Amino acid sequence: MNSLLRIRRPFSFGVSKLRFFCTSLSNAKEEEGLSCTGIGTKPSFVHPSAVVHPEAVLGQGVSIGPFCTVGPSVKLGNACKLCPGSHVSGHTELGDDCILMMGAIVGDDLPGRTFIGCNNIIGHHAVLGIKCQDMKYKLGTECFLEIGDNNEIREHASIHRSSRPSDRTVIGDNNLIMGSCHIAHDCKVGNNNIFANNTLLAGHVTVEDYTHTAGASVIHQFCHIGSFSFIGGGSVVSQDVPRYTMVSGERAELRGLNLEGLRRRGFSVLEIKSLRAAYRKIFMPSDGNMRSFEHRLTELEKDAELKQVSAVCYMVKSIRDSFSEERRGICKYRSWNGS
């Protein structure tokens, strides 16, 4: 029985630089259509039709399916799995236990880097880490994408690299990015967010933590989406969404607090009651309090009871920050008296 040719050059730190080629396999291996290589107790499996550059760096237990390609500057962590027809190229690094579903494309042969953390699932035909669509981008300049851990990025989603070397497109941890979503250049997305199908983020959008968008939401460039907020389906968001609030509409308007989201995230009864009182003071002034928006904010900040609640302070800060230089202000709001 002919045996598989072993690795030509070992790579330090327990990861192997592999040159995948083999002689005739055993009958069992021929039936499986797989080749096996690697050092230690967890070998790597590479289908004979896959093209893996000899300079690629693979961890232990990597599985590469039929018709995949792996470029020369790629690093795959332990137990990564590339399903049939998926491709990794450019200066791209995947952490341990990442899965690329069929047709997924990660990285591009551009200056810069794509980094993806551990335990991420990249869906069917998703495209990550390619050149941005910003006309100001100059070909040949470095661009970057950084993705954290435990994200699920579903089918046909696209996430682009930054438009300039001084910036990054950044995705945090534990996000669910559903089918056909788009995250453009230089966006900053935090942790534990849910983007429903066809959510579109233009360039330089910032999304904090625990936000939720319904389907077909569109967010204008440079907008800021505060933590624990909700964006209704089909909304076009052209200004900032403050923390804890809910917006919806063809031109998104504030519709109140994201009460259901706050309950689900464990906010106490006192916190929710205080946030509701603060929201009314800011956005639903009584007939006896028709002063300016700025004056109402200042009054709230002086409220001896409400200013002791940290959630209220965070909401006020989120609103004030939206009116700072180079920010877009907050979404329009409705109140009972039309102010």
Folded structure, characterized:
Helix content is 15%, strand content 25%. It has five helices and 34 strands. A 14-stranded mixed β-sheet has the order 2-3-6-9-12-15-18-21-24-27-30-32-33-34. Helix 3 (269-283) packs antiparallel against helix 4 (293-302) and helix 3 (269-283) packs parallel to helix 5 (310-322). It is elongated, with a radius of gyration of 25 Å.
Task: Report helical residue fraction.
Answer: 10-25%
Amount of beta strand: 25-35%
**What is the overall silhouette?**
elongated
Task: Give the radius of gyration.
Answer: 25 Å
Strand order of the largest sheet: 2-3-6-9-12-15-18-21-24-27-30-32-33-34
Number of strands: 34
Unreliable spans are 1-41
What count of helical segments does DSSP give? 5
Q: Give a short account of the largest sheet.
A: 14 strands, mixed
Structural class: alpha/beta
The averaged pLDDT comes out at 88
Tell me the distance between the termini: 85 Å
Describe the structure concisely for a colleague.
This protein has 339 residues and is an alpha/beta fold.
Question: What features would you highlight for this structure?
Answer:
single chain, 10-stranded mixed sheet, disordered N terminus, alpha/beta
